[in-house]
Amino acid sequence: MDDQADATNSSNAAVAEDTDRLLRGQARLAEITGRSGQEVMAALGDVAPDFARYIFEFGYGDIYSRPGLDLRARMLATVAGLVCLGHAARELRVHIGSALNVGATREEVVEVIMQMALYAGFPAALDALMIAKEVFADRGLAAKAD
To answer: Which of 53, 59, 57, 86 has its CA nearest to residue 75?
Structure first.
């Protein structure tokens, strides 16, 4: 009987921890993007609902919620990583906007992207700069005149 009670308590604790991670992840995503992420859940709901939950729990509940870096630094690192992938335009667009949401400047985003030309190549950096240009235009962030 004690083994069964221990198993039940352990299972309940695991469910509570997963719920905490999910809620923490949803709150962190809303803080970063200004959106709840329900569109992600809805978009993946009929294909891979578990994958959407993993994004919230692991990505935002665990990784983006870690101490050690502020959100601005995390988002600039994310932009750099997505530039280097070279095939994540949709995510890059979202995360450039998110970097701006958490305090990164237009100039910082541009510099991070340009820096990635050394590691991802000029075509990847050029594509990313064009995406950044669209995000900046959507937000009314014009280039500074020299």
So the answer is: 59
**Could you give the CA distance from residue 79 to residue 83 in angstroms, rounded to a whole number?**
6
| Residues 99-119: b if buried by 16+ CB within 10 A, e if exposed | bbbbebebebbbebbeebbee
pTM over 0.85: no
The per-residue pLDDT string of the chain (146 residues; one tens digit each, 9 = 90 and over) reads 576 666 566 566 666 677 889 899 989 988 998 876 777 778 888 899 899 889 889 999 999 999 999 999 999 999 999 999 999 999 999 999 999 999 999 999 999 999 999 999 999 999 999 999 999 999 999 777 65
CA 28, CA 64: separation in Å to the nearest integer? 7
